[in-house]
Design a protein that fits this description.
This protein is α+β, with helices and mostly antiparallel strands. The longest helix has 29 residues.
């Protein structure tokens, strides 16, 4: 009888070990798709960890950074990180337009959303909503002259989430704004903004 009990105990331990290994393997293989992306996604523009914090666990994830010429007053750079199984997306794009900061702000503030917060730091103006952010910095792109603009040349960045997210509220707001700001700093370089502004490492925290 004692031998039978020992055999049952050993079998139980084996089953528990298999379950534990299986659970660990599932977590490692099937829920960390975003973690397997490059350290910096979208052609090196954005820190992957932002996407890791924002997007839910998933089996697979993809990322893409793309530059399109002849859009706006220069080119457009877009960044897209997507989980395949849940269709959750973190995306943003930046391009130069002939629009003054005041006109841009008027258009952004026209959105009916009580969650709006603003920060204006070292020439970078950010307007944040619950799950999207809009940024502006003066930028005369390479090949253009300031006097050519009807108003003023400005680099505009828009970022947003689509679908489920792993965080909400103020945490999501901050992550999306940080995502947008990293797109802005990358776009500022590739647009060849003639103002030559030294951009801050990050924007002030909302909280």
């Amino acid at each position: 009888m004692q031998d039978i009990n020992k055999k049952i105990s050993k079998q139980a331990l084996v089953v528990l070990a298999v379950v534990a290994v299986g659970a660990f393997g599932y977590v490692q293989i099937f829920t960390k798709g975003v973690d397997r992306l490059p350290d910096r996604v979208c052609s090196g523009a954005v820190d992957r960890d932002i996407a890791v914090r924002v997007l839910p666990g998933t089996m697979t994830a993809t990322e893409r950074g793309k530059r399109l010429e002849g859009v706006g007053e220069g080119s457009t750079f877009s960044c897209n990180v997507k989980t395949r199984s849940q269709d959750s997306i973190l995306s943003g794009d930046g391009s130069v337009h002939d629009v003054s900061e005041a006109d841009w702000l008027e258009g952004v503030e026209g959105r009916a959303d009580a969650s709006r917060l603003e920060v204006d730091h070292q020439g970078v103006h950010a307007v944040s909503y619950a799950s999207q952010a809009s940024l502006y910095v003066p930028c005369t792109p390479a090949g253009r002259k300031p006097g050519e603009a009807r108003n003023a040349y400005g680099l505009l960045v828009e970022a947003r989430t689509i679908g489920d997210t792993a965080v909400t509220g103020d945490e999501l707001r901050q992550e999306v704004t940080d995502f947008a700001y990293q797109i802005l700093t990358h776009s500022y370089r590739i647009q060849g903004c003639q103002e030559g502004r030294t951009l801050p490492a990050e924007l002030p925290r909302f909280s």
